[in-house]
Amino acid sequence: MTNPPPLPWPRAAARHLAALWWLKLPGITAGMVVFFAAYFQLLHHPIRPPFVMPLTAVDRWVGFTPAALPLYLSLWVYVSLAPGLAANLGQLRAWFLAAIALGLAGLGLFYLFPTAVPPFDTVWAQGSAFAFLKNTDASGNACPSLHVAFAVLTAFVIARRLRDLGAGAGVRALNGLWCAGIVWSTLATRQHVLLDAVAGTVLGAAFGLPFARGWRISRVAPPSE
Fold first, then answer.
1. Is the whole-model pTM more than 0.85?
2. What is the total count of domains within the chain?
């Protein structure tokens, strides 16, 4: 008796998304709530005056781009895809362990070495989405950029998942472009400077490389007739 052929990758991915949805939804939500509670506590109560990160030539070259805001905010959809595509409890646990470890490392750095982005000559219109963002997420907790770090970790994980699901090179390239766009958006929205993004990339890769190499997602075979 021969084994049934593997499912096309979109159908296999849909099965992964549906698996353990009752655990993924509250787990992802609870993780974000706990993370932001700690994040804003450190943001508003640093143990010493934050060090203002210096600007580089790249920061001066990358102009303020309001159109980058949706891409910046898309991180939370992007990050949710990694645990969302977990096919079983072991894969879901592995993702959460990696995400928790990255978050603790970043928050620990914020606690020990408070940093902030420099003031930019940008006028925020009252009531605009940017004004809300600036009022909510102040200039602290700058380096490393956890926005970038989580995007990079997610890029490594999703890249591995797409390869194991048999997705084509074009789809895998879109994953990389999405991550790169989020990294760029942190500069274009003036939420971070280049050095923050570089440090965030290093932090995300430190957790993403071994995690992606050590976790293989098998193809999902169709149910037997």
1. yes
2. 1
